[in-house]
Design brief:
- The chain is α+β, with helices and mostly antiparallel strands.
- It has one domain.
- The protein contains 1 helix and 4 strands.
- It has a 4-stranded antiparallel beta sheet with strand order 1-2-3-4.
- A hairpin with a 2-residue loop joins strand 2 and strand 3.
- The termini are far apart.
- InterPro entries: DUF397.
- It comes from Streptomyces cacaoi.
- It holds the Pfam family DUF397.
- This is DUF397 domain-containing protein.
Length: 68
Amino acid sequence: MPIQQGSTHTWTKSSYSTGNGACVEVKSPAVRVVAVRDSKDPRGPELSFRPEVWGTFVARLDDGSATA
């Protein structure tokens, strides 16, 4: 389920999750923010990104142009 900018207030697990616990969760509680956390550590730190930055990151992962 894709998140909706500014109206996804609950954490949503990545659709790429393999069930091994190594995945991220995202939410967008405000129009100008996408929050990301490690699903294994729900009380741990969260990262926040502007939607356009997060979108570019995800697109680069999707097309294979991101490098480790």
